[in-house]
Design goal:
homodimer; alpha+beta; BirA Bifunctional Protein, domain 2; 2 domains; eight-stranded mixed sheet
Chain lengths: 423, 423
């Protein structure tokens, strides 16, 4: 009986795995250059780590199980709650600020579709302990550096940046009561994904009257911070949020990434824990869902039982980014499996073949040889399968003269040399 | 409320993560040098991938859940069944031999104890398509190279090597019927872990009479292949198994790893799918459980619905190996978070600090700076926290002369230089 893989998961055959490794190394490189250090936690966490903050409904979108002691354990859907738990449990001992990054396998029990899988990889960068906008700018610049690292430019992607305090104040000024704000945010987060009419109906259902819905439409039509009308700008909450955003854009200029970023009042992010600047990275053509999502979450540490600490960060999944790189022709060629492939022209003894193999591996060269021996033609085909750069040919004479023939598979050139000069 | 991590899982704070990364890179290096390529599969697999071969009891030792469609999904306890599934589903397209390695997170729902966790990492190397002993030797040599790579020598560890066909024939010659052999093997696999008396009782319970138990004891007392008595060696099954083992030891000599290996008739491996040579790596002092386990499994591909293919390989977990390296003082120093740390002696503008930071990061140097500014003394303390090798000091004059001061934190030396010569 052939057993199939679980829907929404992936098998990583060598080529797919090479791409995943390459992408993960670009993430790691961008994080390290900015002085972030890698951490990780379990993939299996108590379910309440997620339901505590997001409500019991979230369990519907997670894979979870009950253990023999009746405890509910979930497969992590994201890393941030784990990060908050880890910080809260060693808070006194960790030097501040905390600059951590993580590359996680995560799971979401959602409808599997293009760009949305049930098992995926996510890169997280978090900076904890700094309330100032410079921390938001620092994280954002790491995201931009990673995009440069995989070959994307500001003509391919755009960072759309907003502040929850700004939109929150504007929404409340429309007479929408504070307890209803999270629900309105959650609906606005779907704006790119559902038709305008459907969204209007959902907002009406959420209790917004016509005047409030029209007001919201007007707010969402503002393209620049300067579009915000004077009456709103005169209120202290809006004035403070605008000033903070202006400062953030100023810093992004200093980081040399301003051309990648623009203000977008419609960005809210779905997750409940954001408290300040929020941002997403989208492809300019609007072909795909968001590639990165991030923002400030100053209350999360307190919520998981720690001392409250200002914090910001972002996450970036491998699926959408992979599709975008594929579409732009930016997927790199996979590494070859072997630099050298050792073949026997005559029936050379294993002991001698292995001498040559050991010599090459000992010098750090990925080396394969034909484990079955047989006809030279067959062995040369295997060398080609392995995409080896060089083939080393051993003949009967090797035992006596310790010389081998090396063929450069790119140029076709071939020459004789003593074993000790090989590699 | 403080939420605790799940028992038997680990939080990887920066130091633990640095060790895990280092170990994983040593595994990767040993695999690649021998021309193996990396693959991976899902962590969530159909439960039947494990119960099909090992029986429904295995579910007791796994974490599994039922999805909304009633399908039973398990967190993988090991990679080999996934590997077999992946090969079976693309068998015609994959060039032979298949030389794959994998580094997996795996889960087992067992009693958590020293050296045995519920969530762990495992390195797997598999060579599929070659029936000859040279394939077993090739895999074993990769294991030895990895041990060298982490600093272990043949004085620290030993590869204990046997062949299931040999022990299988000897057990059957004692009159133990074939269907009972797997159960006897499973009991023998516990030999190092339970007292001799308890083992004898378990064997009696399994239906072995006194003569059979004594016979088994005599067989297990043989230390060398030459100890096997003449009557046994004269039977074709034993003769064939001994010949195969002799050839394998000959090849291990050619690979230069013979001094790491010895024959051990007591090695059987717990897993049901082994069919030929089986081996384990143990620390010489016998302080820990097995570090590596491997062997030949020529029937597994056929069992998961593929075309039968000869195969061999091994697995190595991170937990025991980590404990051994710790005990031998072989855990490396963690990498520093930052090579450079930029501080402000005066109230320098962010724009200028960021110029220096961008200059260093652009040249590939992990660079941090103090996101809060403030007193120079406080900033120097933060630089020390980050274990930065160099501190770069900016003063008021920087805007005009573009010169910085660099201090080597190891030697204490300090000098002035223009920004463009930095890094």
């Amino acid at each position: 009986m052939k057993i199939q893989a679980v829907r929404g998961t992936r098998d990583f055959y060598p080529e797919d795995m090479a791409f995943r490794r390459w992408l993960v190394e670009r993430w790691r490189e961008a994080s390290r250059r900015a002085g972030f250090v890698e951490v990780d936690g379990p993939e299996l966490e108590p379910l309440e780590l997620y339901t505590e903050k997001s409500g019991p409904e979230i369990a519907e979108q997670l894979y979870w199980l009950q253990d023999k002691g009746g405890r509910k354990l979930a497969l992590r859907p994201e890393f941030t709650p784990t990060l908050a738990r880890m910080i809260a449990s060693r808070q006194a001992a960790l030097p501040e600020p905390i600059r951590w990054f993580n590359i996680s396998r995560c799971f979401r029990y959602e409808r599997a579709q293009k760009g949305r899988l049930r098992e995926f990889f996510q890169w997280n960068v978090d900076l904890v302990g700094v309330p100032d906008e410079v921390a938001d700018a620092e994280c954002l610049s790491v995201a931009v550096e990673a995009m440069k690292g995989v070959g994307l430019g500001p003509e391919d992607v755009v960072v759309r940046l907003n502040d929850r305090r700004l939109l929150g104040a504007l929404v409340q000024h429309l007479g929408i009561a504070e307890p209803r704000v999270p629900q309105v945010f959650a609906l606005l987060d779907k704006r790119d994904k559902v038709p305008a009419l459907a969204l209007a109906a959902m907002l009406a259902e959420a209790g917004l009257d016509t005047r409030q819905r029209e007001g919201l439409e007007r707010v969402l039509s503002w393209r620049h911070l300067s579009d915000i009308d004077a009456r709103e700008r005169a209120t202290p909450e809006v004035a403070a949020a605008v000033e903070s955003l202006n400062r953030l854009f100023e810093l992004l200029k200093d980081y040399g990434v301003a051309e990648w970023c623009r203000f977008d009042i419609g960005i809210v992010r779905g997750l409940a824990y954001y408290t300040g600047p929020v941002w997403e990275v989208h492809d300019r053509q609007g072909e795909f869902r968001a590639i990165f999502g991030g923002g400030r979450y100053d209350r999360l540490l307190g919520d998981v039982g720690g001392k409250p600490m200002p914090a910001c960060g972002f996450g970036c999944g491998d699926v959408i980014l992979g599709l975008l790189l594929e579409a732009r022709g930016l997927r790199p060629e996979p590494e070859r499996a072997a630099d050298y492939y050792v073949v026997q022209a005559d029936a050379v003894a294993w002991a001698e073949v292995l001498q040559v193999v050991r010599h090459l591996r000992g010098r750090g060269h990925p080396t394969q040889f034909d484990l079955k021996g047989g006809a030279l033609k067959r062995q040369m085909k295997k060398a080609a399968d392995a995409a080896a750069r060089f083939v080393v040919i051993l003949s009967d004479g090797f035992a006596a003269d310790r010389r081998v023939t090396i063929r450069d598979m790119q140029s076709g050139e071939q020459r004789d040399l003593p074993l000790e000069n090989l590699g």
